Amino acid sequence: MNLVLNAIQASTAGGEIHLRTQTLEEPAGQSCVSIEIEDTGKGMSADALAKAFQPFFSTKAQGTGLGLAIAKQIVEQHGGRITLRSSVGKGTCVQVELSAYEPAELSAS
Length: 109
What we know:
By secondary structure, the chain is an alpha+beta fold.
């Protein structure tokens, strides 16, 4: 939810937010799920991008700087990873990758 809210707050009127999901195969044969949230907002500088996951760093005037830091901690506690791509003036894309869960009845077939 925090990642979508960040995208909304970074976007201007008429901006777009894209949500994409896909299943990826890891080199070890394990499936993982990729979730991307991409906005057409103001984007982030290379300096801001390097600091984005640090607690209390924010590019927002009213931001606490905890959202991305907490999101990263949650994703990593579940064995996943979170990455950012951004271009100033073009927007930001957050990608979350988590191991796919396969129910026992599906994996047995």
